[in-house]
Amino acid sequence: MGLVRVDLNADVGESFGRWSLGDDDALMPLLTSANVACGFHAGDPLTMRRACRSAVAHGVSVGAHVGYRDLAGFGRRFVDAGVEELAADVVYQIGALDGIALSEGTQVRYVKPHGALYHATIEHREQASAVVSAIVDYDPGLAVVGWPGSQLLTLARHRGLRTVEEWFVDRGYDASGRLVPRGAPGALVTDPEVAAANAVRAVERGAGASLCVHSDSPGAAATLRAVRDALTDAGTEIVPFAA
């Protein structure tokens, strides 16, 4: 196989106040890394603290899932933020989660952009640079998770950061290798067995060191369980990339 070890990550901590999203309790025991929302696109201090506490209980690495300041749009709308402003927002989010993580006996070990910011950093050099600069300024020991070949990972490597390429278990890919846009036919992979088979093939060809499931996808826990079982049966060791 292209990889004999792989990480499983998911977006968690995305509830806000009385608004509940995702089944973190079902997902956390199946993960090796948890992308915890930091309060800008989703999440609040109590939700963040509960996510970190659960991660500690299950031996899961905590990552800062940083996004645009866009609760109403769930961070899935592009924001034309300047480099200085965006870098400050990213530092703020990492620091907020790191403080809560420390109170629960762990710490932030990596950073992954969320939603529209994630997609912007594939080709938007200025915004990718802002995210990278924020990470370097906060803690150059943090890893960065992103799209293979993206500006984000290219700039991160140039600045000496550890980079982790990922592949999406619950999303459809088009012929060019890009994600099918949300809302379009084939955007989501909802059959756990199909997702599991796709994940095994992705690992075989070395598509990513970390595989992601979105917690708000239909049947996310069942999908993640099927993926984990299929990978284990195929001889893949499932371990966190940032222990």
Written as H for each helix and E for each strand, in order along the chain, the element string is EHEHEHEHHEHEHEHE
Tally of separate helices: 8
Question: Could you give the order of strands across the largest sheet?
Answer: 1-2-3-4-5-6-7
* Derived structural class: alpha/beta
Please indicate the percent range of residues in DSSP E strands (runs of 2 or more): 15-25%
Distance between the termini: 23 Å
Which oligomeric form is depicted? single chain
The main sheet comes to: 7 strands, parallel, barrel
Q: Pick out the low-confidence regions.
A: none
What general outline do the C-alpha atoms trace? globular
- Tell me roughly what share of residues is in helical segments: 25-40%
Average pLDDT over all residues: 95
- Record field, number of beta strands: 8
Your description of this structure?
The chain is an alpha/beta fold. 40% of the residues lie in helices and 18% in strands. The protein is built from eight helices and eight strands. It has helices at residues 24-27, 45-57, 83-103, 115-123, 125-138, 151-158, 192-204, 220-233; strands spanning 5-12, 33-37, 61-66, 108-113, 143-146, 162-168, 210-214, 237-238. Helix 6 (151-158) links the parallel strand 5 and strand 6. Helix 7 (192-204) packs across helix 8 (220-233). The protein is globular, with a radius of gyration of 16 Å. The mean pLDDT is 95.
